[in-house]
Amino acid sequence: MKQSLSIIKEKLYRDENVREFCRNHQLSDEQFLNSFSKFIIQMENNRICKDCKGNRCEMDPAGMQTELIYEDDKIDLRYFKCSKYIGGNLGFIDMLHFPNIQRFYNQQLIIHDSRALAFKYMNEFKNKYKPGEFTKGIFFHGIFGTGKTFLMLKLANDLASYNIHVMVAYYPDLVRFIKSSIATSELEVIINKMKYTEILMLDDIGAENNTGFIRDEVLGPVLQFRLQSNKPVFMTSNLNFDLLRKHFMESKDQTDVIKSDRIIERIRYLMHPVELDDRNYRY
Question: What's the pTM value of the predicted model, to 2 decimals?
Fold first, then answer.
Protein backbone atom coordinates (compact mmCIF):
# COMPACT_ATOMS: atom_id res chain seq x y z
CA MET A 1 0.00 0.00 0.00
CA LYS A 2 2.78 2.42 0.90
CA GLN A 3 4.55 1.62 -2.33
CA SER A 4 1.38 2.28 -4.34
CA LEU A 5 0.83 5.57 -2.50
CA SER A 6 4.39 6.59 -3.22
CA ILE A 7 3.88 5.93 -6.95
CA ILE A 8 0.64 7.96 -6.95
CA LYS A 9 2.28 10.88 -5.16
CA GLU A 10 5.22 10.80 -7.54
CA LYS A 11 2.86 11.09 -10.50
CA LEU A 12 0.81 13.94 -9.01
CA TYR A 13 3.82 15.81 -7.66
CA ARG A 14 5.00 16.34 -11.23
CA ASP A 15 2.47 19.16 -11.15
CA GLU A 16 4.08 21.99 -9.22
CA ASN A 17 0.73 23.44 -8.14
CA VAL A 18 -0.50 20.15 -6.65
CA ARG A 19 2.87 19.46 -5.03
CA GLU A 20 2.97 22.85 -3.27
CA PHE A 21 -0.64 22.55 -2.10
CA CYS A 22 -0.01 19.16 -0.47
CA ARG A 23 3.18 20.33 1.21
CA ASN A 24 1.74 23.63 2.43
CA HIS A 25 -1.17 21.88 4.15
CA GLN A 26 0.84 18.87 5.36
CA LEU A 27 -1.83 16.42 4.25
CA SER A 28 -2.04 12.98 5.81
CA ASP A 29 -1.99 9.88 3.61
CA GLU A 30 -5.71 9.41 4.30
CA GLN A 31 -6.54 12.97 3.23
CA PHE A 32 -4.43 12.53 0.13
CA LEU A 33 -6.19 9.33 -0.93
CA ASN A 34 -9.68 10.66 -0.15
CA SER A 35 -9.04 13.67 -2.40
CA PHE A 36 -7.17 11.85 -5.14
CA SER A 37 -9.83 12.56 -7.78
CA LYS A 38 -9.70 16.31 -7.05
CA PHE A 39 -5.93 16.33 -7.51
CA ILE A 40 -6.32 14.57 -10.86
CA ILE A 41 -8.91 17.16 -11.98
CA GLN A 42 -6.68 20.04 -10.88
CA MET A 43 -3.65 18.57 -12.63
CA GLU A 44 -5.61 18.17 -15.88
CA ASN A 45 -7.06 21.69 -15.59
CA ASN A 46 -3.56 23.10 -15.03
CA ARG A 47 -2.46 21.38 -18.23
CA ILE A 48 -5.39 22.86 -20.19
CA CYS A 49 -4.83 26.39 -18.90
CA LYS A 50 -1.06 26.21 -19.40
CA ASP A 51 -1.51 25.45 -23.10
CA CYS A 52 -4.34 27.97 -23.59
CA LYS A 53 -3.79 30.44 -26.42
CA GLY A 54 -6.70 32.65 -25.34
CA ASN A 55 -9.08 31.58 -28.09
CA ARG A 56 -11.45 28.61 -27.64
CA CYS A 57 -11.67 27.53 -24.01
CA GLU A 58 -11.37 23.77 -23.37
CA MET A 59 -12.29 24.03 -19.71
CA ASP A 60 -15.57 22.67 -18.38
CA PRO A 61 -17.38 24.97 -17.60
CA ALA A 62 -15.94 27.22 -20.30
CA GLY A 63 -14.20 30.39 -19.19
CA MET A 64 -13.36 29.12 -15.72
CA GLN A 65 -10.19 28.11 -13.89
CA THR A 66 -9.79 26.00 -10.76
CA GLU A 67 -7.74 25.99 -7.61
CA LEU A 68 -7.50 23.58 -4.70
CA ILE A 69 -8.84 24.91 -1.40
CA TYR A 70 -8.52 23.53 2.13
CA GLU A 71 -11.42 24.28 4.50
CA ASP A 72 -12.64 22.48 7.63
CA ASP A 73 -10.08 19.70 7.10
CA LYS A 74 -11.54 19.02 3.65
CA ILE A 75 -10.17 19.55 0.17
CA ASP A 76 -12.37 21.03 -2.54
CA LEU A 77 -12.06 22.62 -5.95
CA ARG A 78 -13.00 26.28 -6.37
CA TYR A 79 -13.85 27.59 -9.82
CA PHE A 80 -13.19 31.22 -10.68
CA LYS A 81 -13.52 33.29 -13.83
CA CYS A 82 -10.55 33.26 -16.20
CA SER A 83 -9.13 36.71 -16.96
CA LYS A 84 -8.31 35.66 -20.54
CA TYR A 85 -11.81 34.44 -21.36
CA ILE A 86 -13.90 36.82 -23.42
CA GLY A 87 -17.08 34.93 -22.62
CA GLY A 88 -19.68 32.85 -24.36
CA ASN A 89 -21.41 34.13 -27.43
CA LEU A 90 -23.91 36.37 -25.64
CA GLY A 91 -25.84 36.77 -28.87
CA PHE A 92 -27.02 33.22 -28.33
CA ILE A 93 -28.49 33.93 -24.87
CA ASP A 94 -31.86 35.66 -24.65
CA MET A 95 -32.30 36.97 -21.07
CA LEU A 96 -35.87 37.91 -20.15
CA HIS A 97 -36.93 39.76 -17.00
CA PHE A 98 -33.76 38.74 -15.19
CA PRO A 99 -32.81 40.95 -12.22
CA ASN A 100 -29.16 41.77 -11.46
CA ILE A 101 -27.61 38.95 -13.46
CA GLN A 102 -24.04 40.06 -12.73
CA ARG A 103 -24.25 38.96 -9.08
CA PHE A 104 -24.69 35.36 -10.21
CA TYR A 105 -21.53 35.42 -12.34
CA ASN A 106 -19.55 36.93 -9.47
CA GLN A 107 -20.18 33.87 -7.30
CA GLN A 108 -17.59 31.14 -6.86
CA LEU A 109 -18.23 27.74 -8.40
CA ILE A 110 -17.25 25.04 -5.89
CA ILE A 111 -17.30 21.33 -6.66
CA HIS A 112 -18.10 18.91 -3.85
CA ASP A 113 -20.07 15.72 -3.30
CA SER A 114 -23.45 17.41 -2.79
CA ARG A 115 -23.23 18.88 -6.30
CA ALA A 116 -21.91 15.74 -7.99
CA LEU A 117 -25.25 14.78 -9.53
CA ALA A 118 -25.81 18.29 -10.88
CA PHE A 119 -22.42 18.31 -12.63
CA LYS A 120 -23.01 14.78 -13.91
CA TYR A 121 -26.25 15.76 -15.65
CA MET A 122 -24.82 19.08 -16.87
CA ASN A 123 -21.88 17.33 -18.50
CA GLU A 124 -24.11 14.60 -19.94
CA PHE A 125 -26.35 17.21 -21.52
CA LYS A 126 -23.45 19.10 -23.10
CA ASN A 127 -22.02 15.86 -24.46
CA LYS A 128 -25.26 14.30 -25.72
CA TYR A 129 -27.41 17.21 -26.88
CA LYS A 130 -28.26 17.33 -30.57
CA PRO A 131 -31.06 19.52 -31.99
CA GLY A 132 -34.19 17.50 -32.74
CA GLU A 133 -33.18 14.56 -30.54
CA PHE A 134 -34.72 14.15 -27.10
CA THR A 135 -32.31 15.05 -24.29
CA LYS A 136 -33.50 15.51 -20.72
CA GLY A 137 -32.91 18.87 -19.07
CA ILE A 138 -32.45 19.44 -15.34
CA PHE A 139 -34.88 20.52 -12.61
CA PHE A 140 -32.63 22.17 -9.99
CA HIS A 141 -34.45 22.43 -6.65
CA GLY A 142 -33.50 23.20 -3.07
CA ILE A 143 -33.49 25.91 -0.43
CA PHE A 144 -32.61 29.54 -1.08
CA GLY A 145 -29.00 30.31 -1.94
CA THR A 146 -27.65 26.85 -2.77
CA GLY A 147 -26.59 27.76 -6.31
CA LYS A 148 -29.51 26.62 -8.46
CA THR A 149 -29.64 29.72 -10.66
CA PHE A 150 -25.87 30.02 -10.69
CA LEU A 151 -25.40 26.50 -12.07
CA MET A 152 -28.14 26.96 -14.66
CA LEU A 153 -26.60 30.22 -15.92
CA LYS A 154 -23.17 28.62 -16.09
CA LEU A 155 -24.64 25.90 -18.26
CA ALA A 156 -26.38 28.51 -20.45
CA ASN A 157 -23.06 30.29 -20.93
CA ASP A 158 -21.30 27.04 -21.85
CA LEU A 159 -23.99 26.17 -24.41
CA ALA A 160 -23.86 29.66 -25.92
CA SER A 161 -20.10 29.27 -26.44
CA TYR A 162 -21.01 26.43 -28.83
CA ASN A 163 -23.51 28.66 -30.69
CA ILE A 164 -26.55 27.01 -29.09
CA HIS A 165 -29.49 29.38 -28.59
CA VAL A 166 -30.71 29.61 -25.00
CA MET A 167 -33.64 31.58 -23.61
CA VAL A 168 -33.38 32.25 -19.86
CA ALA A 169 -36.35 33.83 -18.07
CA TYR A 170 -36.99 34.77 -14.45
CA TYR A 171 -40.39 33.10 -14.24
CA PRO A 172 -42.22 35.25 -11.62
CA ASP A 173 -41.52 38.47 -13.56
CA LEU A 174 -42.25 36.74 -16.86
CA VAL A 175 -45.66 35.70 -15.49
CA ARG A 176 -46.40 39.29 -14.44
CA PHE A 177 -45.50 40.47 -17.94
CA ILE A 178 -47.72 37.81 -19.52
CA LYS A 179 -50.69 38.82 -17.33
CA SER A 180 -50.28 42.44 -18.42
CA SER A 181 -50.10 41.36 -22.07
CA ILE A 182 -53.27 39.25 -22.23
CA ALA A 183 -55.16 41.78 -24.35
CA THR A 184 -52.20 42.55 -26.62
CA SER A 185 -50.25 40.85 -29.39
CA GLU A 186 -47.28 40.49 -27.04
CA LEU A 187 -48.90 37.46 -25.39
CA GLU A 188 -48.62 35.24 -28.46
CA VAL A 189 -45.10 36.53 -29.17
CA ILE A 190 -43.77 35.54 -25.75
CA ILE A 191 -45.53 32.14 -25.78
CA ASN A 192 -44.05 31.37 -29.20
CA LYS A 193 -40.60 32.36 -27.95
CA MET A 194 -40.94 29.88 -25.10
CA LYS A 195 -42.14 27.17 -27.48
CA TYR A 196 -39.62 27.53 -30.27
CA THR A 197 -36.35 28.60 -28.61
CA GLU A 198 -33.68 25.90 -28.86
CA ILE A 199 -33.11 25.63 -25.08
CA LEU A 200 -35.61 27.01 -22.55
CA MET A 201 -34.52 27.80 -18.98
CA LEU A 202 -37.06 29.04 -16.42
CA ASP A 203 -35.78 30.34 -13.08
CA ASP A 204 -37.71 30.23 -9.78
CA ILE A 205 -40.74 28.19 -10.84
CA GLY A 206 -43.24 28.10 -7.98
CA ALA A 207 -42.48 31.63 -6.78
CA GLU A 208 -45.02 33.15 -9.21
CA ASN A 209 -48.62 34.00 -8.35
CA ASN A 210 -50.24 30.95 -9.95
CA THR A 211 -53.51 31.22 -11.84
CA GLY A 212 -55.50 28.73 -13.90
CA PHE A 213 -54.78 30.79 -17.02
CA ILE A 214 -51.00 30.78 -16.57
CA ARG A 215 -50.98 27.06 -15.76
CA ASP A 216 -53.40 25.87 -18.45
CA GLU A 217 -52.93 28.38 -21.29
CA VAL A 218 -49.24 29.23 -20.98
CA LEU A 219 -47.03 26.78 -19.08
CA GLY A 220 -48.95 23.61 -19.97
CA PRO A 221 -49.04 24.21 -23.75
CA VAL A 222 -45.40 25.36 -23.77
CA LEU A 223 -44.22 22.20 -21.99
CA GLN A 224 -46.40 19.98 -24.17
CA PHE A 225 -45.11 21.59 -27.37
CA ARG A 226 -41.48 21.25 -26.29
CA LEU A 227 -42.07 17.66 -25.20
CA GLN A 228 -43.48 16.73 -28.61
CA SER A 229 -40.76 18.69 -30.44
CA ASN A 230 -37.83 17.24 -28.47
CA LYS A 231 -36.83 20.69 -27.24
CA PRO A 232 -35.06 20.70 -23.85
CA VAL A 233 -36.30 22.53 -20.74
CA PHE A 234 -34.43 23.48 -17.57
CA MET A 235 -35.95 24.88 -14.37
CA THR A 236 -34.95 26.03 -10.91
CA SER A 237 -37.28 26.04 -7.93
CA ASN A 238 -37.29 26.20 -4.13
CA LEU A 239 -39.95 23.46 -4.31
CA ASN A 240 -39.62 19.74 -5.00
CA PHE A 241 -42.13 17.95 -7.26
CA ASP A 242 -44.62 17.27 -4.44
CA LEU A 243 -44.67 20.88 -3.25
CA LEU A 244 -44.76 22.19 -6.82
CA ARG A 245 -47.76 19.95 -7.49
CA LYS A 246 -49.61 21.60 -4.59
CA HIS A 247 -48.60 25.01 -5.89
CA PHE A 248 -50.09 24.32 -9.32
CA MET A 249 -53.27 22.91 -7.74
CA GLU A 250 -54.13 26.22 -6.13
CA SER A 251 -55.59 28.80 -8.49
CA LYS A 252 -57.52 31.56 -6.76
CA ASP A 253 -60.37 29.89 -4.89
CA GLN A 254 -60.30 26.46 -6.48
CA THR A 255 -58.15 23.35 -6.37
CA ASP A 256 -57.47 21.47 -9.58
CA VAL A 257 -55.68 18.17 -9.04
CA ILE A 258 -55.82 16.70 -12.56
CA LYS A 259 -54.42 19.76 -14.32
CA SER A 260 -51.66 20.11 -11.75
CA ASP A 261 -50.72 16.45 -12.17
CA ARG A 262 -50.46 16.92 -15.94
CA ILE A 263 -47.95 19.74 -15.48
CA ILE A 264 -45.84 17.69 -13.07
CA GLU A 265 -45.92 14.66 -15.41
CA ARG A 266 -44.53 16.80 -18.23
CA ILE A 267 -41.83 18.24 -15.97
CA ARG A 268 -40.82 14.75 -14.81
CA TYR A 269 -40.58 13.57 -18.41
CA LEU A 270 -38.57 16.58 -19.58
CA MET A 271 -36.10 16.93 -16.69
CA HIS A 272 -33.89 15.09 -14.23
CA PRO A 273 -34.63 16.29 -10.67
CA VAL A 274 -31.48 17.43 -8.83
CA GLU A 275 -31.68 18.60 -5.23
CA LEU A 276 -29.07 21.05 -3.99
CA ASP A 277 -29.11 20.82 -0.22
CA ASP A 278 -25.73 22.17 0.82
CA ARG A 279 -24.96 25.47 2.54
CA ASN A 280 -26.24 28.89 1.49
CA TYR A 281 -23.58 30.51 -0.75
CA ARG A 282 -25.12 33.98 -0.72
CA TYR A 283 -23.94 34.82 2.79
Answer: 0.68
